[in-house]
Amino acid sequence: MFVSDFNKLWLGETISSLGSSITQFALPLAAAQTLNATPTQMGWLSALAWLPMLFLGLFVGAWVDQRRRRPILIWSDSLRAIFLMLIPAAAWLGWLTMPLLFAVTLIQGLLNVFFLVAYPAYLPSLVAREHIAASNAKLQLSESASQVVGPSLAGLLTQIITAPFAIALDAVSYAISALCFSLIHTPELLPIERIANPDQSQSALLKVKNDIIDGLHFLLRHKLLRIMLVFGILANVSGGITYAILVLFVTRELGLNAVQFGIVMSAAGPGSIIGALISVRLVKRFGVAPTMLVGIIMSSLSSFVFPLLNGSALIVMGVMMSAEFIFGVGSTLWGVNVMSMRQMVTPSELLGRVTASMRTLIIGALPIGAIVGGWLGEWVGLRAALGVGAGIAVVMCVVALSNREMRRVASHAFVG
Fold it and tell me: Residue 367 in contact with residue 307, Cβ under 8 Å?
């Protein structure tokens, strides 16, 4: 039963990841090419996808820990499918505008908060504790495979049917994912039933407040979680600046078309697959925390090449593909192990809150970086803005490698 239900989860998430990788590529192209967006608009478009996590993530984490997670996954996927379909519908009717893209992106970001918090908290209900790391590796492998196919497919579809209509495939993938979740039959214990003698006299608002404090308290007191939190925040500020304006830089200043850009961005996929395949071996040899540290450094430093790009399309594509491959390896080493470690060291009744706390603070850095990146791109130029993003990543990595306390914490993976 557990294997069968995990496979339903795996299938649904694989299909959804493929659709999402298309939208992540096609949505900024729709803004840049179809609507001729400015750098500032591109920054806000990227930021709106993550702002809900910044402002609501902690509250959603506390809310999720009081409810069964599977229904949350089903209705969040269903609503994401409905709202995302508004983009191709508006394009077909000739009503597509930047305000509509902003609105749909914000709604998608809100629904993503519920899904991203509930999803990791639901996995331990389907697999035994000792199989969590392997299960996360399988899920990450599927996501990595979608990164290989998604951008190239999105680039091709964008050239043939334009970006807004390519996004329709993601809406369909969310609907299929919701169906797969609905077919899971493994009983899920209501999280609050695991807590002995809950204080029924607390008001709902006070309980949410206390739940948020509990999640933050555990996160900030755990040495490895805390240090990885710092790395994640700095890396995402850098990444937010870079990826908010990269599509404008590549298409307008370097002259790549949608197909070429799609091929370039697909290079992260093979890197992610390699990262997923070697992750377990690296953990066994070096430990969880050192592997995560290597991952975050690799993924951050890969952005250093972007402001230096120049030359023919072939040269630009080769350099960018190498950087994206390194990013794929590093981000997977980081992602698989930080999630597995968080799931293993966090008590079940706190898992939703701790997940929300960490995701809120790390992902919340993305919109900040995106807004800054859009503003910098508008006022100092796209190449200079990319240089700022790369500079933040380089400084963060130098500090991480030279700080004794960070190295000491990284050598003790599960010391609380």
Answer: no
Q: Please, what sign has the CA dihedral across residues 234, 324, 88, 179?
A: negative
Exposure string of 278-304, with b = 16+ CB inside 10 Å and e = fewer, is: ebbebbeeebbbbbbbbbbbbbbbbbb
> How far does Cα 116 stand from its chain's mean position?
9
DSSP string, 79-105: HHHHHHTHHHHHHHHT---HHHHHHHH
Q: Give the domain ranges of the chain.
A: 2-186+208-410
Give me the CATH topology for the region 2-186+208-410: Growth Hormone; Chain: A; (1.20.1250)
38 φ, ψ (degrees, to nearest 5): -85, 165
Q: What is the pTM of this model?
A: 0.79
Rounded distance between C-alpha atoms, residue 66 and residue 386, angstroms? 42
Do residues 370 and 50 make contact, with C-beta atoms less than 8 angstroms apart? yes
Instruction: Please report, for residues 232, 342, 379, the alpha-carbon distance to residue 400 in angstroms, rounded to integers and kept in the order given.
Output: 12, 20, 31
Contact 291, 283 (CB under 8 A): yes
Surface-to-core class of residue 93, CB atoms within 10 Å of its CB (0-12 exposed, 13-18 middle, 19+ buried): exposed
Residue 416's pLDDT is 38
Distance from C-alpha of 240 to C-alpha of 53, rounded to nearest angstrom: 14
CA–chain centroid gap for 78, Å, is 19
Taking alpha carbons only, the member of 172, 171, 187, 150 closest to residue 261 is 150
Taking residue 249's Cβ as centre, other Cβ atoms within 10 Å add up to 21
C-alpha span between 145 and 270 (Å, rounded): 7
User: Among 383, 385, 403, which Cα is nearest to 395's?
Assistant: 403
Contact 374, 39 (CB under 8 A): yes
Cβ burial, residue 187 (10 Å; 0-12/13-18/19+): exposed
266: tokens are 């697909």
Query: Amino acid letter at 18?
Result: L
Mean pLDDT along residues 344-359: 75
Structure tokens belonging to residue 31: 């803004």
For 234-271, how does the pLDDT look when each residue is reduced to its tens digit (9 = 90+)?
A: 888 999 999 899 999 999 999 998 889 989 988 887 88
48-82 pLDDT tens trace: 998 887 888 777 877 877 778 889 989 999 999 99
Q: Which residues contact 256 (CB under 8 A, 6 or more apart)?
A: 250, 264, 313, 316, 317
